[in-house]
Amino acid sequence: MTDTTAFEAAAFRRLVAHLQQRTDVQNIDLMIQAGFCRNCLSTWYEEAAAAAGTPIGKDAAREAIYGMPFPDWKAKYQPEATPEQLAAFEAARRAHP
């Protein structure tokens, strides 16, 4: 049987790098289209670290995913959501509870 952990880790690192490069893609748009965002991914990362016996905390998990402290990323790349984005988010949330 093949141990897929290395493959999964490589794919995860590539996803994180891709999301760090695509600063034009807003978290709310990810939530609307995919049902998860960078914050979700950082929460999963934090939970996995804790389950492995290495709690890292929310800020460290977010920095691992964003590639910088979250407040810095938010200030540089995350504008306020538009009314259209908020409406689409709410519709997506209702469609996929």
TrEMBL record:
Which InterPro entries has this protein been placed in?
SMc04008-like_domain (IPR023163), SMc04008-like_sf (IPR036810)
Q: Which residues form the SMc04008-like domain?
A: 25-90
Q: What is this protein called?
A: SMc04008-like domain-containing protein
- Lineage of the source organism? Bacteria, Pseudomonadati, Pseudomonadota, Gammaproteobacteria, Lysobacterales
